[in-house]
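Researcher: Sequence recovery benchmark, item below. Answer with residues only.
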């Protein structure tokens, strides 16, 4: 039988703690699959590419996107 549970926990000394309410479902030697999703809550600083993507600089003499696709 395949069962899935989801919970949030903190890593302590490289170990993840299984909440008590799920421990009774686990037997010593059980094969389990662990998927780790990490939320670092880090905001990457914008670089010049991000800035130009959001605010393209107008350049004279270049074709527009529409003109490129019409050729």
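Model:
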């Amino acid at each position: 039988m395949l069962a899935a549970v989801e919970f949030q926990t903190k890593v302590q000394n490289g170990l993840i703690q299984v909440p008590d309410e799920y421990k009774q479902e686990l037997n010593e030697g059980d094969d389990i699959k662990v998927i780790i999703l990490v939320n670092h809550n880090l905001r990457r600083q914008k670089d010049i590419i991000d800035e130009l993507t959001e605010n393209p600089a107008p350049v004279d003499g270049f074709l527009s996107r529409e003109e490129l696709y019409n050729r």
